[in-house]
Design brief:
The protein is built from 8 helices and 2 strands, in the order H-H-H-H-H-H-H-E-E-H. The protein is mainly alpha-helical. The longest helix has 25 residues.
Length: 179
Amino acid sequence: MTFDLENTIALLERTPAALNALLRDLPAFWTQSTEGDNTWTVYGVVGHLIHGEHADWLPRLHRILNDGETKAFDPFDRLAQERESAGKSLPQLLDEFARVRAENVQNLRALELTESDLDRRGLHPSLGPVTLGNLLATWAAHDLTHLHQISRIMAHQLREDVGPWIAFLGVLKCNGHSS
């Protein structure tokens, strides 16, 4: 399958609304619970998505366009949301995510990337060479990974209550996929 920027943007544009529809005004039971020790809350996942909007996707895109493989991406702090979200409510985070994602998609569209741009290469500090197309596809897959994670976190809160139906609920059998 050939990477399609417009299909990717279509997904990126919808993630904030999907999160808003699912999460806004939910009781803390759903948004502040975890799957166990050293796992994230739904609140933390939203904060992580915001941090990625500021520090990951477009900064790395610009690094590829400006520096190619001559300068590696800056490391990404996967736990920055713990300090950056402090004192904010979940509705504030949802609003911030919607705002910054809309800005980033607008900035992405304004670049008018070509097929040859998508083949341009950058340097990930641990993965090595990657293309701009790889980065943009990962941005969308990252959204889907965290939507899945949110579903898992929320379903985990019902784990003891579903009884024998657990046999049919894959979301309760999944242990995550990120290292």
